[in-house]
Amino acid sequence: MSAQARPRAQDLGIPSGAFPRGEWNAITDVPGVRVGHATVRDDRLSTGVTAIVPDALGADRRWLPAGLSVGNGYGKLIGATQLVELGAIETPILLTSTLSAFRVADALVGYLLEQPWHAGTTTLNPVVGETNDGFLSDIRSRPVGDAQARAALDAATGGPVAEGGVGAGTGTVALGYKGGIGTASRIVEIDGRSRTVGAIVQSNYTGTMRLAGVPLPADELLDAEPAETIGNSCMIVVATDAPLDGRQLGRIANRAVFALRGTGSDFAQGSGDYAIAFTVGEGPAPDDEALSPVFLATMDAVEEALVNSVLRAETRVGFEGRTAQAIPIDRVRERLLRAGAVTAPVAP
């Protein structure tokens, strides 16, 4: 079953919850947000870069309001302190492999300094997150750098987003299965206006997978040994067009981290669990009393994105013959039906 043929949560009949999904059910449903991947894959390497590019950043807007939540800080999130201090981002957000994060950050700075609106720039804060893909990839070779970062930025588009073992998710492992990139979105009303909340994730964490509350343990569903997660981390990026300020976006980011538990994360000691939330919206921020629907929409979108990252990933044989198995979709359907989480069989 190819990655494109593999279902997403909505294809299995999982309801969207309190709020409808966006057109693409992706972070790209947020106006002006694009995603690009660069994938590095051979007998030794399973790695890459994923770029989240807000078009609002440019000559007219050098900063976008943003917030950060650190669920557990065992990670290498470059640019975090300035993001918190100023409540803003000034670059696209790139995701990659742990030991390549520093090379990717340097590449991002070089790429942006070439842009006309940065002709006089003397300080720039690149935002680059990572998870450890060392189970499937020769991580010590640090194979991701300038060429791959530029390729991901140049490939960034709107519309449907490739998920599973692509870009920064090429070598990741989640909940005993092959993990990867996942995305989802929700449409929510704030102060009488329709707004979009979109999420994208890079999943690489441990625990017992749950989908719609149904346990899907890897040691029961797989006929092989569950894959080993190295680094045990997750990167989450949330975008919205609601005109929120940095403090409010920090609260959104907190809810994004909370959503990890819904998928079965055990928040292990060595996990680097981070969420960044930013807005492309402009205008006065709503009162905090209007935020509860956005909190719920965020948690629903992030949880579904995490699930999609596993559902869409294909089995990968990587470095030194290590294997991460794709979650078996037929067994997932069977358990969902048995638990009453879906009401009718969904065609493959």
* Spans where pLDDT lies below 50 across 5 or more residues: none
The residue-averaged pLDDT reads 95
Strand order of the largest sheet: 4-3-14-13-10-9
Decide which structural class fits the backbone.
alpha+beta
- Tell me the distance between the termini: 10 Å
* Total count of helical runs of at least 4 residues: 7
Largest sheet: 6 strands, mixed
Element order, helices and strands? EEEHEEHEHEEEEEEHEHEHEEH
As a whole number of angstroms, the C-alpha radius of gyration is 19 Å
What is the overall shape? globular
Residue share in helix:
10-25%
Beta-strand content bin: 25-35%
How many E strands?
16
Which terms summarize this structure?
single chain; 348 residues; alpha+beta; six-stranded mixed β-sheet; four-stranded mixed β-sheet
Topology:
Layout: E1 33-41, E2 46-54, E3 64-73, H1 80-86, E4 88-89, E5 93-97, H2 101-113, E6 127-131, H3 146-155, E7 173-174, E8 177-178, E9 181-190, E10 193-204, E11 210-211, E12 214-215, H4 218-221, E13 233-240, H5 246-262, E14 272-279, H6 292-311, E15 316-317, E16 323-324, H7 329-339
Parallel strand pairs: 5-6, 13-14
Antiparallel strand pairs: 1-2, 2-5, 3-4, 3-14, 7-8, 9-10, 10-13, 11-12, 15-16
